[in-house]
Amino acid sequence: MTPSPATQPPATDVLVLGGSGVDTIIHVPELPLPYADSYMIDSGIRTRAGQTGDFVALGLAALGLRTHHLDLVGDDPEGDLVRTLHREHGIGLTALPQPAGTRRAVNLVGPDGRRLSLYDTSRARPGDRFPPRTLRSLAAASRHIHVTITQPCAEALPLLTAAGVPLSTDLHDWDGENPYHEPFAHAADVVFLSAAALTDPERTLHRIAERGRARAVVATAGAEGAYLLSDGELTRVRAVSPPAPVVDSNGAGDAFAAAFLYGRLSGETPETCARYGAIAGAHACTVPASRAESIGRDELLERAAGPRP
């Protein structure tokens, strides 16, 4: 007997909302970059698809999760790169028209792998919205939804909350004060952010949990590991040694989030999820920014089963 639509399991493990785009990667001799009339870039200047939503989707798909991505994408060469990336990696993409064009950014990458991102904010309009019918349909078919903080995801939060599907978000380098990030922080069941701009990470994590509905809040801290707040208990997550030289930190936070969500959807403890995230984030730092490559499930589980530092 064929199950009725109401009893059929979700067709998608994770719906990723927003965050598609194209980056131009430039390796520079140092950061900050001193003023000069010109620089010779011997390593080349490369443009490839992949911003935060794309990288989370890639990481989830590489770990074997059924992944779908929804965003506004331009009818332009940059949009073609985004569509091709998803097609090559077998990731479903609902690309709605964006007349302002596909998002673009320039990443300056230093010799130590640190990066400085320059975002083109002209590739969005104040009235941008996801069609409610499309959003409801994709949400209903998903076990989990990861919401990036790009426009128009903020406008979608009330509908997503009403849908009753667990949510996650990444606040990136939030300073703990900017009010734009607060609706995302308070609506999500799992919140990721970087500790880079936080003066008191522990206080910020507790405040997110107290004011919102998050059951897990993670602040990544690079080589210092991460902070994990789960069910009111704060623990430190040890950093994982990269398996190869660090060449670029771009995408490390997205890889951490993808692996953490893989663990969560597999029924693992928050501590195990965070270890998965640390392993995936360390792996991402060894991948040149010009490549779209995520750690696979077998490799992740093999490293997670190995000795801990």
UniProtKB/TrEMBL annotation:
Keyword annotations from UniProtKB, A to Z: Kinase, Transferase
Pfam families, alphabetized: PfkB
Superkingdom of source: Bacteria
The UniProt record lists the keyword Kinase: yes
Any one GO molecular-function label of the UniProt entry: kinase activity
Limits of the Carbohydrate kinase PfkB domain: 190-290
Keyword Kinase included in the entry's annotation: yes
Protein name: Sugar kinase
Organism of provenance: Streptomyces yokosukanensis
The organism's taxonomic lineage, starting at the top: Bacteria, Bacillati, Actinomycetota, Actinomycetes, Kitasatosporales
